[in-house]
Design a protein that fits this description.
about 450 residues; mainly alpha
């Protein structure tokens, strides 16, 4: 197997196991902490607050991540981040309110390091022809974490209306072991030299990957103020809000809808499984068709994700009661709550999320290959800030309000992404035609790139 592609596979396995632990924990955290509070009234930790702290810290620390990576390198940053994930999972074996929030701050800082390092390392192991394929394959492997972890939770929570201590400890212990296995895979990652610029039509490109810590921070600020990055930030904001919704609000809301039946709590894990199935199918599909999406453009996939998500928002609106995010309720919505429809919506949320995120990875790795560390850090900063805001209002806003916010942001984010993609395609076409007209590089491949821009 080619060395760079093998690195992508190792990266995928490492993140798959680390995030099997974390994403499963995020999906069930609200439900688990409510059960802990019932057993121990002195414990007052809240799942939404914990997740809000994680993403708020992640947003702040993303500004420092490029500087950290200039010192540790992408592999070192990912390892540091992975150990904070392990610590976060372990703390659930010893439930203390203060420990929960301290661990939330630490994992937020670690997440900035692991995700910025991942974006940089994936770019280093890709080129113009493989970035879409590698992004899709990595995303599919990463989202397998939702499938395996939540399938385990689905089995362990079967027939339970209250998650007892023994069940909780078995789940936490298993997730701790899986997270440790992911760290082993990250240790196996091999160093790679920075490749040439991904975009075939770029000229006079300055490499920012070897800047020092202060230069990296200034470069991130400068990049954030560019027109294209400001437009892309609208898309990043939407992915952050929908991430917090499907990862921390939607599945618990299903479990709180008691009219779903006596196995309502069990559906929390099953919802995560269906979200994971949608994510994996989307990532695998766009990975296999990576060369085709490079030719056709990224915008059709993002538009498809938009249509899928808006459809799912409407179905959730008519299926779940308005107060479902707040706790157990016997209320109903416009139809009697249907577990089958709820699982279908979970699948749509996952598949639509894959549409957005695989193309974001592709456009950042392709258009910002000379400054990928800062580009991915800004992506995670904006996404995480939006996710933190969503978790803060999730415990107060009715379901209909949250769905309305998602629909508006989806429209803005999709329009902004298409604007950047179309503008980049026009610039590439103009540059290629100019080169051909001047007969500097009489290569017909450039003309093909102008018609089928990455």
């Amino acid at each position: 197997m080619e060395r760079k592609f093998f690195n992508v596979i190792l990266l995928g396995f490492g993140f798959m196991f680390v995030f099997t632990a974390f994403q499963t924990m995020g999906n069930i955290e609200k439900t688990i902490l409510d059960s802990i509070t019932q057993d121990d009234p002195s414990f007052t930790g809240d799942g939404y607050t914990s997740l809000a702290i994680i993403y708020a810290t992640l947003a702040i620390c993303n500004w420092l991540a490029p500087s950290v990576i200039t010192i540790t390198g992408p592999r070192g940053a990912m390892l540091i981040g992975a150990f904070t994930y392990l610590f976060f999972i372990v703390t659930f074996l010893f439930p203390r309110t203060w420990l929960l929030y301290v661990a939330s701050v630490l994992i937020g800082a670690g997440a900035a390091a692991i995700w910025t390092g991942q974006g940089n390392y994936l770019t280093l192991n890709s080129d113009a022809d493989t970035i879409s394929r590698n992004s899709g394959i990595f995303w599919a492997m990463l989202q397998c974490s939702l499938f395996f972890g939540n399938l385990f939770v689905f089995i362990k929570f079967q027939g339970k209306t209250h998650i007892d201590l023994d069940t909780r400890n078995v789940v936490f212990g298993a997730l701790t072991a899986v997270c440790a296995l992911g760290i082993v895979f990250l240790l196996l990652l091999r160093p790679i030299r920075r490749p040439q610029v991904l975009d075939d039509v770029k000229t006079d490109v300055v490499n920012h990957e070897d800047d020092g810590p202060m230069e990296a921070f200034k470069g991130a600020l400068k990049l954030f103020c560019t027109r294209d990055m400001m437009f892309l930030s609208c898309t990043f904001i939407y992915t952050g809000v929908e991430l917090s919704f499907f990862s921390g609000v939607y599945s618990p809301s299903i479990g709180f809808t008691l009219s779903m039946g006596e196995n309502a709590k069990q559906l929390v894990g099953l919802s995560g499984v269906f979200i994971g199935m949608g994510e994996v199918l989307g990532g695998a599909l766009f990975g296999i068709l990576g060369s085709k999406t490079t030719r056709w453009g990224r915008d059709p996939i993002v538009i498809m994700g938009y249509i899928i998500h808006v459809t799912s928002f409407f179905l959730i609106f008519i299926n779940l009661p308005n107060v479902a995010p707040f706790g157990d309720t016997m209320e109903t919505s416009y139809i009697n709550p249907s577990p089958y429809l709820a699982m279908f919506c979970s699948f749509l949320l996952g598949f639509g999320d894959a549409c957005f995120n695989t193309q974001i990875y592709s456009i950042l790795g392709g258009n910002y290959s000379d400054n990928s560390t800062s580009a991915f850090a800004l992506f995670k900063f904006t996404q995480s800030l939006a996710a933190a805001a969503c978790f803060f209002y999730s415990s107060r806003a009715l379901l209909s309000v949250q769905l309305g916010v998602l629909a508006v942001l989806a429209s803005l984010g999709t329009a902004a992404f298409c604007r950047v993609e179309w503008a980049a395609r026009s610039r590439a076409r103009a540059a290629a035609l100019e080169v051909i007209d001047d007969k500097v590089i009489p290569d017909t491949h450039l003309a093909e790139n102008a018609l089928h821009y990455d």
